[in-house]
Records
---
Amino acid sequence: MELLEQKILNEGRVLSESVIKVDSFLNHQIDPVLMQQIGEEFSDRFANKGVTKIITLESSGIAPAQMTGLSLGVPAIFARKRKSLTLIDHLYSASVHSFTKNETNEISVSKDYISSDDTVLILDDFLANGQAVLGLMDIVEQAGASLAGVGIVIEKGFQDGGKILREQGIRVESLASIESLVDGKVTFTKEEAS
Ligand code: 5GP
């Protein structure tokens, strides 16, 4: 997705050979116009798949998930990383090791919002080693729901997540795919993964 790649090139800050910071439009401040286009793009790519729910992980997945939900006309659910006073039981839960924070969180979704009648689209901001998506897939499976596929805003193709998921036959759509972050420079994979 051209606009997204331009944003990454212009505003992304390469922090190391494996991490890029995109706080100016995705992970802290949010660019609503870009999010709207991201939502439309995911909606086009997963049209006719019978998606009934979108599921993501708080907090950075929420903006793209909400805009995709708006385009597809379905609700967006965000898995919570901490239990709260209002979210204690009647939950599906899974363990997710965070790549950026190097900590393991238990993520939870209320059983009220996902059921065996649902066809779920998983969305996230980044795909690195695939732990977040695998945790969300675990929850989809516990609910007995079907998986339509996985939509990722920025995939880092030099890490294993994309390979692990595609080897399982899962459809993974990334709107930008980074091949390398070597020498502080972002290089995109020539053909976007599909
Ligand atoms: P994974 O679970 O695939 O290993 O990592 C994906 C999660 O880690 C995403 O939800 C995202 O929050 C975070 N993440 C992974 N790599 C990066 C990165 O290079 N930059 C930022 N900002 N977040 C990342």
Note: The CA atoms of residues 167 and 183 lie 30 Å apart.
---
Amino acid sequence: MIEISQLQKKFDDVTVLESINFSVKKGEVVCLVGPSGSGKTTLLRCLNLLETPNQGTVQIGDKRVEFGSKRLSKKAIKDLRSYSGMVFQGFHLFPHKTVMENITEAPLTVKKASKAAVIEDGEKLLKKVGMIEHKDKYPDALSGGQQQRAAIARALMMNPDVMLFDEPTSALDPQLVGEVLRVIEELAKEGQTMVIVTHEMNFAKRVADKVLFMDGGYIVEEGPAKELLENPKEERTREFLQLLG
Ligand code: ADP
């Protein structure tokens, strides 16, 4: 489903990702873990071109984009983006739109589908994330956990092949974390392909097929979730996990 090879990303002269190689199979859940500043968010953003890598290739589905030599066409960027749905730390809902308006905006403008069909899809997804009774509310009337569940429904509306989550629970009060993680776990059970940046190690252990440990812009170690988190091979991974307790 996803194949990343020799990816490099610099901000000005500072290299923040180097020699990144990994793949994600259809239906697989991959968690990116590692210390703050190790490049996890930047890597996730490179997958849907919110950041443009300097070198390397990103293949998602049958779309392959090579970076480095020539400028990317708008079409290539749009094509690659259409494969993924992104959920951010800070929800990013439109404040002046209701939940239903938030989640139906993209399919109505991009897909040119009929309004009735889009609303029907929206209702199905809002039921799935436990938000149907809030469909006519505005974001500021919702808790952070409810806003994040609406944001997940919004990303799912475009039927993405892969869902990308950037620390989806780190802006939430602790008592709201569980409701969001449960929705993501449900998606995992349904076979949704996902790449998730997270600090929730117990969640990663439960949900991930594979965990990548990043440090200093490199993937230091990767492996099956339980194996890497309970029995890491690399010293740096061990130190990181010990610090978390
Ligand atoms: P993580 O998600 O692991 O905390 P990030 O991907 O956010 O790490 O950041 C990796 C490195 O890239 C950090 O040193 C950060 O300061 C730097 N960085 C991230 N975004 C930018 C940017 N837009 N401009 C310059 N430096 C950035």
Note: The beta strands are 2-11, 14-24, 29-33, 55-60, 63-67, 84-87, 162-166, 193-197, 210-215, 218-224.
